[in-house]
Amino acid sequence: MRNKFYITTPLYYVNASPHIGHSYTTIAADTLSRYMRHVLGDKNVWFLTGSDEHGQKIQRAADEAKLSPQDFADKMSLQFKELWKELDISYNDFIRTTEIRHIKTVQKVLDILHKKGDIYEGKYEGLYCTPCETFWLESQVSDNLCPDCKRKLERISENNYFLNLEKHQAWLLQYIKDNPSFIKPESRRNEVLSFLLLNKLEPLCISRPKERLSWGIPLPFSPDYVTYVWFDALINYISAVGSFDEDNKYISKWWPADLHLIGKDILRQHAVYWPIILHALGGIEQPKTIFAHGWWLINSDKMSKSRGNVVSPLDMVNKFGLDVYRYFILRDVPFGLDGNFSEEAIIKRFNGDLANDLGNLIYRTLTMIEKYYTGNVPELDIFNIKLDNSGEKIKQAINDLGIYPLLNLNFDFSLALEKIWELINMANKYVEETKPWNLAKENRIEELKSFIRLLVEVIRKVAGEIYPFMPETSKSIIQQIGEDKIKKGKPLFPRIDTSKPVT
Ligand code: MSP
């Protein structure tokens, strides 16, 4: 299919409730999907999200909850679905790794790679972190602790199945060099390139013996093993949108993915393992772009259950409103970098950008239309008449403003919003400069009319541009400034009084 956009989020682990980090990737994907639907039409965008339900983490959390892993996963994946509903996430499909369509595809992939010899049986001896399900080399470890979670490592020796990564290393290196848009941003691309240049890729252990972990997809060629959760999960990107035919050819209307949106923590799996799996399968196209964004931190620290600093997106939405939350997380930090999350930072954006800038522009414009024109939007084609200097500049800015290519090329949400706010601020300044109350007093009717009409054009433009970021606010602005009549409501963003606690 041409002219399509297939975008994915990671599949979130269902071992714990969703937090702001999960909502970040999903809101970014939602914003891009809405924007692409605007550009390409509804039918040409496919937005996939879902849940990652196998493996040790889930097994352990299910044990603690005294539920079977399947019942536990059912319950938890519902929490994610409910959250996405609250956050107005416009996904097209939600895949769970415990669904048959997924399991069948994973087993097919395993079979193909096993028959080709890319997956082979071998012995593993070394260090293993059970909670992280990760094997570590002696050289990577000091003091016998997991470099990731700092828990004690176990020494194990067992037969397992491995994917030969090294065989494809030279190909991958060249592929990344030849395709500058494959990994973004640039800093992450360089990170993967230097990793591939400096290290020999070790075989990836893709199985776990059932006696140690039974909660996984059984290997089709060896009944005593289940599939390693990462090998299983990555395949969702193809299992959700297609299938293999009798000749083992993968058929899909949507593949290749145009964008895998991920956090920086899972770059290696997406930019090394996943391309190699696809390449080893033979003839399956690579995703067009893998974009790794940064992390939300709390006081520069990782969010974690044990630190007790996990922030729930629903709490933020209940406190500040959905669009405020969506705006904040896409505006406050350039996409790709880490940011510090705090309620103070949200309030600052709220009172500044939303109440003072956007809210004020709308409210004062509506008030003037009410006062000077009894609520009727003055009719005038300001693009066909000459305005004063500042007015002409604003007209130009309206015509120039287009977040669309900007977002498309760089995924720079923050910059896109900044550009929209430049227009809002120009308009607010224009009000202060022009002093419309004097125009009214002095009976300069034509000037007043073109002035107000220009503000209306700015607001309509802004409403359209912010739609992908703040869908409800956009609709409500368009409702308030109707085609010919206004419908003034309460101020959209009443200032938050910082001297009182926010409830
Ligand atoms: N299940 C795997 C992904 C498999 S994809 C085939 C996984 N799941 S996860 O639930 O741990 O989280 C995945 C994603 O959540 C991260 O890659 C990132 O996109 C997002 N975030 C989790 N914590 C985050 C922050 N603190 N900040 C920003 N995003 C983070 O890994």
UniProtKB/TrEMBL annotation:
Q: Give a GO molecular function annotation for the protein.
A: ATP binding
The record's comment on cofactor binding reads:
Binds 1 zinc ion per subunit.
Motif 'HIGH' region positions after renumbering to this chain: 12-22
Q: Which UniProt keywords apply?
A: Aminoacyl-tRNA synthetase, ATP-binding, Cytoplasm, Ligase, Metal-binding, Nucleotide-binding, Protein biosynthesis, Zinc
Q: Which Pfam families match?
A: tRNA-synt_1g
Give the main localization category: cytoplasm
Residue ranges of every copy of the Methionyl/Leucyl tRNA synthetase domain listed in the record: 6-152, 158-366
User: Could you tell me which InterPro entries the record lists for this protein?
Assistant: Anticodon_Met, Met-tRNA_synth, Met-tRNA_synth_2, Methionyl/Leucyl_tRNA_Synth, MetRS_core, Rossmann-like_a/b/a_fold, tRNAsynth_Ia_anticodon-bd
Q: Name one GO cellular component term.
A: cytoplasm
The first-level EC class reads: ligase
Enzyme Commission number: 6.1.1.10
Q: Which domain of life is it from?
A: Bacteria
Q: Which residues bind Zn(2+)?
A: 129, 132, 146, 149
Q: Name one GO biological process term.
A: methionyl-tRNA aminoacylation
Question: Motif 'KMSKS' region, which positions?
Answer: 302-306
**Cofactor(s) needed:** Zn(2+)
Q: Which family does it belong to?
A: Belongs to the class-I aminoacyl-tRNA synthetase family. MetG type 2A subfamily.
What job does the chain carry out?
A: Is required not only for elongation of protein synthesis but also for the initiation of all mRNA translation through initiator tRNA(fMet) aminoacylation.
State whether it acts alone or in a complex, and with which partners, per the record.
Monomer.
| Protein name from the UniProt record | Methionine--tRNA ligase
* Upper taxonomic lineage: Bacteria, Pseudomonadati, Candidatus Omnitrophota, Candidatus Sherwoodlollariibacterium
Gene symbol of the encoding locus: metG
